[in-house]
Amino acid sequence: MSTTTITFEDRPVACQTGESVLDALLREHIDIPHGCKQGACQSCMMKSLDGAPPPEAQNGLKDVLRHQNHFLACLCYPQRDMRVGRHTSQQFNRATVIGKQPLNSETLLLTLHCHGVMDFHAGQFVHLKRADGLSRSYSIANSRRHAHRLSFHIRRLPGGRFSEWAHGELNVGDDIEVSDPQGLCYYLPDDKERNMLLIGTGSGLAPLAGIIEEALHQGHSSEIHLYHGSREVDGLYWVDEMRELAQRHAHFHYTPCISRGNAPQGIAQGRANDVALAAIPQLKDWRLYLCGHPDMVNQSKRQAFMQGARLQDIHSDAFHVASSTQE
Ligand SMILES: Cc1cc2nc3c(=O)[nH]c(=O)nc-3n(C[C@H](O)[C@H](O)[C@H](O)COP(=O)(O)OP(=O)(O)OC[C@H]3O[C@@H](n4cnc5c(N)ncnc54)[C@H](O)[C@@H]3O)c2cc1C
Ligand code: FES
User: Fold this and answer.
1) Does 221 score more than 60 pLDDT?
2) Domain limits at 127?
3) 0.85 exceeded by the pTM?
4) Is the beta carbon of 321 within 6 A of some atom in ligand 1?
5) Same structural domain for residues 200 and 301?
6) Quick one: how far is CA 195 from the chain centroid?
7) Are residues 215 and 154 in the same domain?
8) If you measure from the C-alpha of residue 157 to the centroid of ligand 1, how many angstroms do you get, rounded to a whole number?
9) Under a CB-based contact definition with an 8 Å cutoff, are residues 190 and 287 in contact?
10) pLDDT in tens, 26-69
């Protein structure tokens, strides 16, 4: 099998054909931060020190980072030997847990007070890092109005290292580190007259809730349609809050959906993306936000494009969970 050589901090590491830079470095027990291993969370960002990295390893990065030869190690399958370094400009800020309450049996509302001002766009995500360095990506669930307060919806995955810890061991008063905001799925108040369709599954409601709060605060004047889906009724949350919001704002529409069992009155039967895209067949000039399960996000993107949405108007965050092989 042919290999290339990755040189990291003067240490050469063989990278085999079909192996990512991230996997090669982890195999050698080099501690590189990572999360999804799918190019979604950007926590494995590194820098090429000897020229441009493969273009596909820069997917989703801001132009400034591309030009500085940053790349995502999990997407980097080198065709040549490379010298690489850590992405050192990632800033972490100290925050203190000020609230912890259940949203449903599997989802926690975690509220943090950030000791510095967080300059984020509603819908972006951050990396939360605990004292031993383990970090995971979570979407900000509130609007920009709260410069020091961030809230998150954290779904517990059985056996999940971070989410189980956040549910069971993290307490009000504890400190945690929060990265700079990341990602391109956010609300910009540049076009308040465009209709918006937001589809989320599970804790994918978090960024959408932040976007809706921001849009209403900014005076977004066109239609805003939210479809939130889960398998069963128990997996939904904030149903009353969203209904109440819809009563207060005539142009905000909310449809909770369940995909299994019989839907009770007021809840739509079917997958949120199927229900939404059937209800709104013509998406020309709409702006879309898709968050949550990666399969839902990918299917909805394709379908929305077929129904007239432009790709640049489809914003998404797929909540990729790293495979069980990750450390
Ligand atoms: C851009 C982005 C935004 C996100 N936003 C959110 C959000 O707002 N809310 C949210 O809840 N999540 C969000 N996520 C997902 C989140 O980052 C984490 O991936 C998720 O919480 C799981 O992390 P964990 O450490 O609990 O699980 P991990 O420890 O990473 O485990 C993942 C899964 O693998 C299984 N597993 C782990 N180790 C083993 C093993 N040895 N053998 C077998 N199985 C194993 C676990 O049981 C679990 O099901 C987001 C992800 C991305 C990429
Ligand atoms: S983007 Fe590489 S681990 Fe998430």
Assistant:
1) yes
2) 92-179
3) yes
4) yes
5) yes
6) 22
7) no
8) 7
9) no
10) 999 998 988 888 898 888 999 999 999 999 999 988 888 899 89
